[in-house]
Amino acid sequence: MAADRIGTFRGDGADFYYVVRGAGPPLMLLPSGGGDAHCADLLATRLAETYAVLTYDRRGQTRTVVDDPGRPVSLERHAEDAAALADHIFGEAPVSVFGCSTGAVIGLELAWRRPRRVSVLVAHEPPLRSLATASERARYDRLHRDARRVHAESGWPAALKIMRAGFGDPSHDPRDHEDEVVWEPASGRTVANINAFLTGEARATWEYRIGAAGWAALRAGATTIVPATGRATDTFPSRCAARLAALLGEHLADLPGGHEGYRTHPGAFGAALHGLLTSRGPTGGSTCRG
Predict the structure, then answer these.
(1) C-alpha distances out from residue 11 to 67, 168, 201, Å
(2) In angstroms, rounded to a whole number, what is the distance separating the alpha carbons of residues 201 and 60?
(3) SS3 for the chain, per residue?
(4) Which residues contact 237 (CB under 8 A, 6 or more apart)?
(5) Residue 145: CB partners within 8 Å, gap ≥ 6?
(6) What is the pLDDT of residue 273?
(7) Is the per-residue pLDDT at 284 higher than 50?
(8) What does the CA dihedral 287, 274, 74, 32 come to, rounded to 10 degrees?
(9) Mind listing the domains of the chain with CATH numbers?
(10) What is the pTM of this model?
(11) What's the CA gap between 196 and 191, in Å, rounded?
């Protein structure tokens, strides 16, 4: 397996920190809110046995330096960044993408705007306001306001607890993981990334809209979209995944673990994800420039 390659890429007003692991068909991982280039190391290492796996720090995260750090970042901007990084690392080769939660929403925007950039997108539990019922929209509008208030008053642990409980995420159980997963204490890097999520990325994700034209483009586009969910639980993100599958006329894939199964069950998750990618997307090699 090829050695990890760590580098920076000058994009639109930012220097992006990225990591490329392995060699083979190109694969980009877009983790959930607050997740950076190293939050899915165990999953990325497994997938690097077969793929060239690209991860990076998004705008607002610690090792990506932006020219204007006070400027709000939209999900559309995040998708443009992902496309620019894929262009830089993989050239014109179509890229497979796995996105979880916020990362899945970014992946959908990328597939809409750049359908030939993404060969297959596994969209795992995207919390899309566009797929919420009227009562859910009202409920989660309040939840986001409450989380921002609590974050300002009491800090990130209390705000994150409110968001997880409000969206019905059961992944807070510290015992629910594979044996090799070891939870490290919060560091300056991870806390800064969580704070960036709570102050900006969470709101941008929730305010993102896909209208009728966007859904039509996704259904007709060149990207194969695979909606996916974790274990069978009735949470808002899992309901969104099921609604996405129905809207696109696709089968709903079931992946191991809960909302962040890619972190808690990387072995089983990686094997299942590889199965989805090989059954739905191309497996040819590519040139990696990073």
Answers:
(1) 11, 36, 19
(2) 8
(3) CCCCEEEEEECCCEEEEEEEECCCCEEEEECCCCCCCCCCHHHHHHHCCCCEEEEECCCCCCCCEECCCCCCCCHHHHHHHHHHHHHHHHCCCCEEEEEECHHHHHHHHHHHHCCCCEEEEEEECCCCHHHCCHHHHHHHHHHHHHHHHHHHHHCHHHHHHHHHHHHCCCCCCCCCCCCCCCCCCCCHHHHHHHHHHHHHHHHHHHHCCCCHHHHHHHHHCCCEEEEEECCCCCCHHHHHHHHHHHHHCCCCEECCCCCCHHHHCHHHHHHHHHHHHHHHCCCCCCCCCC
(4) 101, 125, 126, 127, 167, 169, 229, 259
(5) none
(6) 97
(7) no
(8) -130
(9) 5-280 (3.40.50.1820)
(10) 0.94
(11) 9
For the segment 97-153, what is each residue's pLDDT rounded down to a tens digit? 999 999 999 999 999 999 999 999 999 999 999 999 999 999 999 999 999 999 999
Could you report the per-residue pLDDT of 38-85, keeping only the tens digit for each? 999 999 999 999 999 999 999 999 999 999 988 999 999 999 999 999
Mean pLDDT of the chain: 91
Phi, psi torsion values for 149, nearest 5 degrees? -65, -45
